[in-house]
Amino acid sequence: MASETNEKTPDANEIYMQLQYLQQVYSQQYEVLTQSIDNYTAMQTVLKGNIEIIDGSERIGSKGILVGTEGGMYISAETNAINSVITYIGAGYLVEQKLDDAKQFFENRIKKGDELLGKLVTQRQKIREELADINYRLSAIQAQGSL
């Protein structure tokens, strides 16, 4: 006499529903990672722009400039030699830094951002592969007509 087990094997409908749920979760994670990558890429562009401004600060000195403010307003101003900048370092704090120090600060942030971007891209690739596997398995269940 064959022994009966209390464990039930999931039927094709249960497996299909679980795979659909995983597909939805992974798709949401993929979208969040894509948005994060886009945000970090935009931030990297801004930081690189700051370095370009610091590098070109000698050309700006003793000339008229437009200073951007909130809400699309600009103030016309004249500058003396630019020796330092005010840098936002996070948590609401601003610090006055010499140009070389500010440039190094931005370069370090870019480097850390590049490392984080690499990790995000790697994680997104793993999720893309998981999604491809789930989609393959869903298609296989549909092709078997087990639903």
Features:
147 residues; alpha+beta; Helix Hairpins; two-stranded antiparallel sheet; 4 strands
What does this structure look like?
Helix 1 runs antiparallel to helix 3. It is built from three helices and four strands, in the order H-H-E-E-E-E-H. The strands form two sheets. Strands 1-2 form a two-stranded antiparallel ribbon. It has a two-stranded antiparallel sheet with strand order 3-4. It starts with 11 loop residues before the first helix and ends with a helix. The model has no long low-confidence stretch (mean pLDDT 88). With 147 residues, the chain is α+β, with helices and mostly antiparallel strands. The chain has one domain: Helix Hairpins. The radius of gyration is 27 Å and the shape is rod-shaped.
Question: pLDDT under 50 segments (min length 5)?
Answer: none
N- to C-terminal distance: 32 Å
What integer is the average pLDDT? 88
Q: Tell me the strand order in the biggest sheet.
A: 1-2
Helix content: 55-70%
In N-to-C order, the SSE pattern is: HHEEEEH
CATH-defined architecture: Orthogonal Bundle
Main beta sheet strand tally, sense and closure: 2 strands, antiparallel
- Name the beta content range: 15-25%
| Radius of gyration (Å) | 27 Å
Estimated structural class:
alpha+beta
**Inertia-based shape:** rod-shaped
CATH classification class: Mainly Alpha
The third-level CATH topology is Helix Hairpins
Helical stretch count?
3
Compute the number of strand runs: 4
Number of domains: 1
Write a brief caption for the model.
With 147 residues, the protein is an alpha+beta fold. The protein has one domain: Orthogonal Bundle (Helix Hairpins).
